[in-house]
Amino acid sequence: MKKSGDVVGPVIGYVPGAFDLFHVGHLNALRQARQWCDVLVAGVVADEVCVATKGVLPTVPLAERLEIVEAIGIVDAVYAENSADKTDSWRDVGFHRIFKGDDWQGTAKGQRLEAQMAALGVEVTYFPYTLQTSSTALRKALAHRGASSA
């Protein structure tokens, strides 16, 4: 069992993300998180939450994103994240450690998450963000490709 503070029993890890246009960056995050917990839950952000927080409607619907993330066999469970507030997810899932890309580390949103999770006794663990691949970059490439073929 991996250690997480004073946790007795299995350490539950939580990886939130849109997981839209599933790519190697998503795979890297899930693989890395798997090493830091006994039970890994992927929080797949609902469409309306993506719109509210990122201003983008996912290309792949929530039900399909949940199915894709569950099917790759790295996570023990998937959770439809219907709120941007990670406290809501924590209440439902009961995780001990939350994983984020290091693009959050040292930022205002990362500091808010750290404070929020510390109040719950949850550790925030950062992993290297896969810069060369992101859903945003894929959307831009697809839009560019579509515009140049029109």
UniProtKB/TrEMBL annotation:
Checking InterPro entries in the record gives: Archaeal_FAD_synthase, Cyt_trans-like
GO MF terms here are: nucleotidyltransferase activity
Domain Cytidyltransferase-like, first and last residues per copy: 14-108
Nucleotidyltransferase recorded as keyword:
yes
Q: Does the keyword ATP-binding apply?
A: no
Which keywords has UniProt assigned to this entry? Answer: Nucleotidyltransferase, Transferase
Question: What is the protein's given name?
Answer: Adenylyltransferase/cytidyltransferase family protein
Species assigned in the record: Nocardioides daeguensis
Q: What are the top taxonomic ranks of the organism?
A: Bacteria, Bacillati, Actinomycetota, Actinomycetes, Propionibacteriales
